[in-house]
Amino acid sequence: MRVRLCSLLLPALLAAQAPRIGIIDFYGAGKLSQERLRQAMGVKEGDLLPRSKGDTEIALESIPGVVHARLEAACCEEGKAILYVGIEEKGAPHFQYRDPPEGLVKHPEEIHDAYVHFLAALGEAVRKGDTAEDLTEGHSLMANAACRAQQERFLVFAEQHLENLRDTLRNSYDEEQRAIAAYVIGYAKRKEDVIDDLQYALRDPDDTVRSNAMRALGAIAVLAAKNPDLGIRVAPTWFIEMLNSLIWTDRHSAAVSLVTLTENRDPSALQQLRERAPGALIDMARWKHLPHALPAFILLGRVLGLEEKQIQEAWSKGERDKIVARARKQLKP
User: Whose CB among 87, 140, 183, 213 lies 3.0–4.6 Å from 28's, allowing a Cys bridge?
Assistant: First the structure.
């Protein structure tokens, strides 16, 4: 399985120059018009990214009915940034994070050092476009030799320090420590032993902790789908709830994971999607950047009861609007 780690390209783009906006897309704005939101932001496609993210979010939150707003830039549309604008309206579904833990627990220094080396190698791999990875063992093993060398160390650490990693993930006050634990614990030999810990981390207050936990659970879901006889099950509930998050990375990563988790068309999972996240799926399936829109479009098709071939044909023929219109009528978000 090959995955492009596109979000890691944006820092390099930002460092190279102040990027212009290629696309502006919205989510969560069920009652407000996009024109009203664009007026408050004061930027449009072709402009530079807003000079002050915080000021722009405050301007959006001054609109009656907006509880919170969030701007997030992602990569890339023809070399330009994609600006996602998240809106939480009054009375809309809300994804609740846990309070930060306050414990002093840490993991061994060798784990921290290996993770730092891994991130450095990953950054270099991204710059070279060498981001292929294999998830079929239930964890990431990248084709890039430098990245893979550190990941193979994580296999040893997860075996030797599992209880410490679990304790750190749940109880450390330090979000970096928790983020490292969320990544490394996914390399445990018995995946079923760490699923609860990773599910717990999906509601961590730190974005990176949640992202690493989703990546780890997504890889475990690939293994479970490939080898159903193992009896491994990753519950979709918190991924579905995360589709209503104000954070773009939460929504996108959750949708990617849910494509794998709903491959078997589990009726309970599809019913949860139908009840808890129809508006979110419709928003995301309409995004202009096609790679970002595709996971939600697949989920929307499954919720509507379309066969996989029908979903693929509708996508390839450019019939997104037809499927979205059907979803609006049948799901009534």
Answer: 87
| Beta-carbon count within 10 A of 28 CB | 24
CA 41 from centre of chain = 25
Q: Are 229 and 264 contained in the same domain?
A: no
* 118 and 75 housed in the same domain: no
Total structural domains in the chain? 3
Q: Where are the alpha helices (DSSP H) in 185-289?
A: 195-201, 207-226, 237-242, 248-261, 267-276, 278-285
Q: What is the CA radius of gyration of the chain?
A: 20
- Residue 32 sits in the same domain as residue 107: no
Q: How far apart are CA 285 and CA 289, in angstroms?
A: 10
Record the tokens describing residue 120, joined without a space. Answer: 């450095």
Furthest-apart CA pair in the chain: how many Å? 55
* pTM for the whole structure: 0.87
Asked if 319 contacts 297 with a C-beta cutoff of 8 angstroms, the reply is: no
C-beta separation of 215 from 221 below 8 A: no
Q: Using DSSP, state whether 217 is helix, strand or coil.
A: helix
* Nearest one of 216, 211, 276 to 241, comparing CA atoms: 276
Contact between residue 115 and residue 123 where contact means Cβ atoms under 8 Å apart = no
Residue 193 lies in a domain: yes
Mark whether 98 and 200 lie in a shared domain. Answer: yes
pLDDT, one tens digit per residue, over 80-122 is 999 999 999 998 888 999 999 999 999 999 999 999 999 999 9
Q: Are residues 126 and 189 in the same domain?
A: yes
**Cα 244 to Cα 281: distance, rounded to the nearest angstrom:** 9
A 10 A CB-CB count for 179 gives: 24
Residue written as token pair 């997030």: 72
Cα(173)–Cα(171) distance, rounded to whole angstroms?
6
Same domain for 275 and 155 = no
Beta-sheet strands, E only, within the chain: 21-27, 66-77, 80-89, 133-134, 141-142
Residue 78: the pLDDT is 87
Domain that holds residue 259: 236-333
